Amino acid sequence: MPRYLFDSNIFIQAKNFHYHFGYCAAFWDWVAAAHEAGLVFSTQSVRSELLRGDADDVLVRWVHERLPDTFFIDDLRDANVMTHYGAVQQVAIDRNHYQLAALRQFADINYADAFLIAAGRAYGYTVVSFEAGLMQRKNRVMLPDICQLYGVRTEVFWDVLRNHCSGTFVLRVPE
Fold first, then answer.
1. For residue 18, which of 144, 169, 154 has the smallest C-alpha distance?
2. Structural domain span for residue 100
3. Which residues pair with 1 in a beta bridge?
């Protein structure tokens, strides 16, 4: 069975656009159920990004209330992940392509992408993100590009849902 690591933008965009808590609670239930089934995970670095929102933000509350500690790989304390983290950074540097500011952002401990890639490689997870690769971009290190260069599988979010979800929208008729 495949195992997926979700990028923070999966949760943020789902909340803001596609699967707002107000009309699509089934998506959020699916995420929790997919984790319980051993399918969906993320990293503590992603958790930290998600919790930067206001304490009363619905996504922040959901992370606190619904996602168990087992959902998030403790990437900063995992020697295997940290070994790969160094290698991921080196892949970006060795490309001799990115602007210094882009490399600095990618190496920032508060920025989850490199940790997500490292955890994916360390444990054989597939990384799922809304971010699109763009190899020619120089002012930002793109997660899918480094995944490709470092041999970490990526999958489009919609394909994950298509393969592992059978959802329905229930009509609510106004009275």
1. 169
2. 4-171
3. none
% helix / strand / coil in the chain, to the nearest 5?
Answer: 55, 10, 35
Q: How many domains does the chain have?
A: 1
CATH number at residue 132: 3.40.50.1010
Q: Which of 142, 141, 140 is nearest to 131 (CA)?
A: 142
Rounded to whole angstroms, the Cα distance separating 17 from 147 reads 26
Tell me the mean pLDDT per 10 residues along the chain, length 175. Answer: 95 94 90 94 97 93 96 96 97 92 95 97 97 82 94 94 75 58
Distances (CA, A) of 136 to 95, 112, 145: 11, 21, 10
Token pair for 158: 């919609």
Q: How far is CA 71 from CA 45, 58, 139, in A?
A: 12, 18, 32
Please give the model's pTM, rounded to 2 decimal places. Answer: 0.91
Amino acid letter, 43: T
